[in-house]
Design goal:
By secondary structure, this protein is an all-alpha fold. The protein has four helices and no strands. It has a domain at about 20-100: Ribosomal protein S20 (Methane Monooxygenase Hydroxylase, Chain G, domain 1, Up-down Bundle).
């Protein structure tokens, strides 16, 4: 930068000069890490629930227990303000819908014409 006399001066940063700004930055970092941890726990609980539902040997009671745990974590994250309460409700609803949906059928076998063409 150039001042009024025409000499070059280095621009000074004006960030974090006040103690209140420094404290706000510390608080924001603490909250960011806490929110990150809570979001990770929610994602892992949802993933475990879906994997248990897909597993052939998993019982309905085990899946229901995991579903209740995932729902509780979603509600807790919403209470703490980590995610919006409507987002928590939407995620719970979609999770339950995925668990109730019938398993997709296996891919149909290739047609006879396709198999004959492949043999040639």
């Amino acid at each position: 930068m150039v001042d009024m006399a025409g000499t070059a001066t280095a621009a000074k940063k004006k960030t974090m000069r006040h103690a209140s700004a420094q404290k706000a930055a510390r608080q924001a970092e603490t909250r960011r890490l806490r929110n990150r941890s809570n979001k990770r726990a929610v994602r892992e609980a949802v993933r475990e629930t879906l994997e248990a539902a897909k597993a052939k040997g998993a019982s309905d009671a085990q899946t229901r227990t995991l579903l209740n745990g995932a729902a509780a974590l979603l509600d807790k994250a919403a209470r703490r303000g980590v995610i919006h309460w409507k987002a928590a409700a939407r995620r719970k609803s979609r999770l339950l819908a995925r668990l109730k949906a019938p398993a997709p059928a296996a891919a149909p076998a290739a047609s006879v014409k396709t198999q004959a063409a492949a043999a040639k």
